[in-house]
Amino acid sequence: METHNYTYKYPRPAVTTDCVVFGFDGHDLKILLIERGLDPYKGCWAFPGGFLNMDETAEQGAMRELKEETGLDLHNLQQVGAFSEVDRDPRDRVITIAFYALAKKADVQGGDDAAKAQWFAINEMPRLAFDHDCIFRKAMQKLRIDIHFEPIGFGLLDEKFTMPELQRLYEAILGIQFDRRNFYKKMLQTGILDKAEDDETELATYYGEHKEMKCEDTETLFGGFASEPCLPYSTRPDDDSRRRKGTHFSFNKQRYDKFKEDNNFRLEF
Amino acid sequence: METHNYTYKYPRPAVTTDCVVFGFDGHDLKILLIERGLDPYKGCWAFPGGFLNMDETAEQGAMRELKEETGLDLHNLQQVGAFSEVDRDPRDRVITIAFYALAKKADVQGGDDAAKAQWFAINEMPRLAFDHDCIFRKAMQKLRIDIHFEPIGFGLLDEKFTMPELQRLYEAILGIQFDRRNFYKKMLQTGILDKAEDDETELATYYGEHKEMKCEDTETLFGGFASEPCLPYSTRPDDDSRRRKGTHFSFNKQRYDKFKEDNNFRLEF
DNA sequence: GCAAAAGTGTTTCGTTTACACCCATGC
DNA sequence: GCATGGGTGTAAACGAAACACTTTTGC
C-alpha cells in the first residue's frame, strides 16, 4: 500500500459513507449489520461503509463499500443525510454520509466478508457502533416518509408477491395495521399491480399449460425458484420462505409512472 | 493567517456548507443569494456558505457562515443533504452539506457583507454558481414535503399574520391554489391558530380598550410595529408590507404539538 | 374435517371539494 | 357607490373505514 501523504493548508475532516440496508423476510423488517472486529466499538455492530475515494460520489462510494463488505450489489441508494457531530468517531474528525438501500430477498448473496454480516429484525437490534443508532432512526424515518411517495414496498419483495405479503411489509414499515380488505382495494385500484397469471411467469412453463391451478401449485412453484438462495435471516428458520400461498402479483413500473404523473407525484397509500 | 499544513495518509475532500434561506414577502417565496466576487463563477450568485471548521457540526458551520455573510442569525436549520459530485467544484474535490432555513421578514438585517446579499423570487432567479441550482431544487423539494409535517409556514411569517397571507404562502410553496373558504376551515379546525384579540397584543395597549375595532385600525396597528425593518426585498417596493388588513392570527406551538401527537405526527394540510 | 388465512363486496362515515352570500375597506 | 378583498356556511362528491361471508389451504 502506498504511503503517500496528502497535505492541505487547512485541516479537513475524513469523509465516510454508511449504508442502511433494509430487507424483509415476510414478517419483520430487517437491517443488515456487520460486526466490528477492531476498536473502537470492537464487538459492536455497524452499517456497512467506509472511506470515500476521491474519484467517486458518496453514492458510488456507499455502493462500493456495500459490495465489498457484504457482496450485495444494490443500486438506487437513497441519501439519508450527513452526520457531522464533532466527536462521533473517537479517533478523528469523521463526517459520514448515510444512505439506505432496499434488498430483495433474492439479492442476498454471501460476499467475501459476508460471514460477518447478519440480518437483524429492527426491534431486535444489537448495540450499534458510533452514532449508528442515530443514523438508523433517521433512515427509518425517511423510509416511512418515502414509502408514501415511492414504490418502496416492491423493492423489498421478490418479483412476484402476494397481497398479504405486501400488506405485512407496509405494516412493518409504518408500524400500523391495515384492514386486509381495504388494503386490497386501495392497492388494486391504483392499477400499479399486475396479477401474475400462469402464462406470465417463465416458471409456469415448468408445469405446462394448466389453467385454473392458481393456488394449488404455488408452493411447488415457488420452491422452483432456482435463484432463491438460502437466506441467512436469523430467526424463523424455514417456515414461511417456503409457504407462499395465494394469488401472486407483480409491480408494473410503467403503470406506476403513469399513476404517479396523474397524481402529481403524490402517492398516498 | 496561519500557514500551517495538515497532512493525511489518504486524500480528503474539502467539506463546505451551504444554506438556502427562504423568505416570504407576502406574495412570492424568495431566497437569499450572494454574488460571487471571485472566480470560479465570478458574477454568478450562490447560497451563503463556506468551509467547515473542525470544531463545529455542519449545522453550526452553516449557521456561522450565514451569520458572517448575511448577518442573519437563524436557527432550526434543516439538512437538505450532501452533494458530492466529483467535479462540482472545478478547483478541488469539495463536498458540501446543504441546509435550508426560514427567515421571518423581521429577521432580515443588513450584516457586514449583506450588501452583496439579495433576495430573489424563486421564479426570477439569476444564474447560480456550482451545482447550486441542484441544491436549490432539492431544498425546494424538501420544503414542499416538510410543510406537510412541520409548521413551516409560521416560520416565514411575522408573529401575527392574516389568513390570506398564510394561504398565499402555502400556495407559493406548494405551487397550487386553494379555495379560500376551505383553507380557512382546514386551518382553523386544526386548532393550532390563535385569533389575535386586541387584548393579546401589547400593541393594543397603544389604543386603549376599544372593542369591535377589529379591522378599522389594523393598518395603523401594524404600522406601529417598531421592530419591522425596511426590507431589502427587491420587487414591489412598499405597497403590501404596510397594507395588512383583516383578522390576525398567531401560531400556538403548544396546541400544535398536541395536534401533532394526536395525529401521529402527520400534519396534512 | 377443521382451523387459519385468502379473496371479495357493501354500507357508513368523515373529509374534501365546490360553491354563494354578506361585510368591510379604499378609491 | 363601486370594486376589491376578507369572513362564514352548506350541499354534493369522493375516498376511507368498518364490517361479513365464502373459498382455499394445510394439518
Structural commentary:
Two copies of one chain form a homodimer. By secondary structure, chain A is α+β, with helices and mostly antiparallel strands. Chain A has two domains: 14-146, Nucleoside Triphosphate Pyrophosphohydrolase, CATH 3.90.79.10; 154-263, no CATH class. In chain A, 28% of the residues lie in helices and 21% in strands. Chain A has helices at 58-70, 132-146, 152-155, 163-174, 180-190, 218-223, 239-242, 253-262, and strands at residues 6-8, 14-24, 29-35, 45-46, 49-51, 78-83, 94-102, 117-121, 160-162, 193-195, 248-251. In chain A, the strands form two sheets. In chain A, strands 2, 3, 4, 5, 6, 7 and 8 form a seven-stranded mixed β-sheet that branches. In chain A, strands 9-11-10 form a three-stranded antiparallel β-sheet. In chain A, a hairpin with a 4-residue loop joins strand 2 and strand 3 (29-35). The longest helix of chain A has 15 residues, at 132-146. The first copy, chain A, starts with 5 loop residues before the first strand and ends in a 7-residue tail after the last helix. The interface between A and B is medium-sized, with 31 and 31 residues. Strand 1 of chain A pairs antiparallel with strand 1 of chain B, so a sheet runs across the interface. Chain A binds a DNA duplex (27 and 27 nucleotides) through residues 162-164, 179-182, 184-186, 214-216, 219, 243, 245-247.
